[in-house]
């Protein structure tokens, strides 16, 4: 039986694994994609808010030629961390079920890879499943059409196309800038009355310059009514209108997927989405199940980042190591 099984191989899950290994605990990490899958899903040319040193885990230096690393820099760094620390990763496995063992000693986790079912036993679990599990749906007709996406990768495929970006925060503005640079005809529809204060201060001036030069069309107070194969229909200041759209990016944010939490008996605040846990140990209301990373913040993705979530692992490892010592000396 493992001492701990971590679900989620993002930076916070990897950090927890390293902290446990440093204390001599037997640990493995299950990931439905591969390591740092959420970072891999970032736009190709994404730049981090944080400096490289604030993304470091396991005492491995993140040396980068620029102050703020890009997506590719982070992917290289975290791959190197996993190799150096010899973390056991179980990639491309989807956790299907978590349950307490019949004898009450730990947990049973059932996962699937391809068509194979795998069952593992562990004395404790860490849920580090991240924030980008589920896109916030607009619940409008046409949202599921094939030319509509909640994820943006890069601008090149949309050269010469009419592209509508829905949303008004960082992901929307970043997508609009890159799309325009790649030669797309871009319109950004935002339900707010003015630019969001959360937009990165070094990005907003560039975007505003594009709008002033009429290279990007910015529409405030826009409420989406429906999407068809050729148009986006919306209301601007209450007046119905539409715009041609070959492709649509609905950058409306994301919600953590907490299905496993509920299945395991972890209580979740209905208003904030925050799971019930002890901030000193990160242990949930279910003894032996811990929470790590941004998922601990519920619906507020601006509360926990890699730079502070990476320290959850130390709290968890200390708590778990102490607990296992107590259990073996009883």
Distance between the termini: 19 Å
Order of helices and strands, N to C? EHEHHEEEEEEEHEHEEEEEEHEHH
CATH superfamily of the largest domain: FAD/NAD(P)-binding domain
CATH topology of the largest domain: FAD/NAD(P)-binding domain
Task: Report low-confidence residues grouped into runs of 5 or more.
Answer: none
Shape: elongated
Q: What class would the helix/strand composition place it in?
A: alpha/beta
Largest sheet: 7 strands, mixed
In helices, the fraction of residues equals: 10-25%
Percent of residues in β-strands: 25-35%
What Rg is obtained from the alpha carbons, in whole angstroms? 22 Å
Number of alpha- plus pi-helical segments:
8
Number of strands: 17
**Whole-number total of structural domains:** 2
Q: Please, what is the average pLDDT? A: 94
Instruction: Please identify the oligomeric state.
Output: single chain
CATH architecture of the largest domain: 3-Layer(bba) Sandwich
CATH class of the largest domain: Alpha Beta
């Amino acid at each position: 039986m493992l001492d701990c099984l971590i679900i989620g191989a993002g930076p916070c899950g990897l950090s927890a694994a390293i902290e446990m290994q440093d204390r001599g605990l037997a640990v493995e990490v299950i990931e439905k994609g591969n390591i740092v899958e959420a970072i891999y899903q970032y736009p190709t040319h994404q730049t981090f808010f944080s400096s490289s040193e604030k993304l470091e885990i396991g005492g491995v230096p993140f040396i980068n030629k620029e102050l703020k690393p890009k997506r590719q820099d982070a992917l290289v760094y975290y791959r190197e961390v996993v190799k150096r620390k010899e973390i056991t990763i179980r990639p491309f496995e989807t956790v299907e079920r978590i349950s307490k063992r019949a004898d009450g000693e730990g947990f049973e986790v059932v996962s699937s890879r391809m068509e194979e079912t795998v069952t593992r036993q562990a004395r404790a679990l860490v849920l580090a499943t991240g924030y980008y599990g589920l896109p916030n749906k607009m619940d409008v007709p046409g949202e599921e059409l094939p030319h509509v996406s909640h994820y943006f990768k890069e601008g090149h495929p949309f050269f010469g196309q009419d592209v509508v970006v829905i949303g008004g925060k960082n992901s929307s503005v970043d997508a609009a800038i890159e799309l325009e640079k790649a030669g797309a005809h871009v319109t950004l529809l935002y339900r707010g009355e003015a630019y969001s204060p959360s937009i990165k201060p070094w990005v907003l001036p560039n975007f505003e310059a594009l709008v002033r030069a009429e290279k990007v069309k910015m529409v405030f107070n826009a409420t989406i009514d429906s999407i068809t194969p050729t148009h986006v229909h919306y209301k601007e200041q209450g007046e119905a209108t539409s715009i041609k759209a070959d492709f649509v990016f609905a950058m409306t944010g994301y919600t953590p997927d907490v299905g496993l939490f509920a299945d395991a008996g972890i209580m979740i605040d209905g208003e904030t989405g925050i799971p019930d846990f002890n901030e000193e140990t990160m242990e949930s209301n279910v003894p032996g199940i811990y929470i790590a990373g941004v998922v601990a913040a519920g619906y507020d993705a601006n509360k926990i980042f890699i730079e502070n979530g990476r320290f959850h692992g130390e709290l968890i490892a200390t708590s778990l190591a102490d607990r296992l010592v107590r259990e073996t000396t009883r």
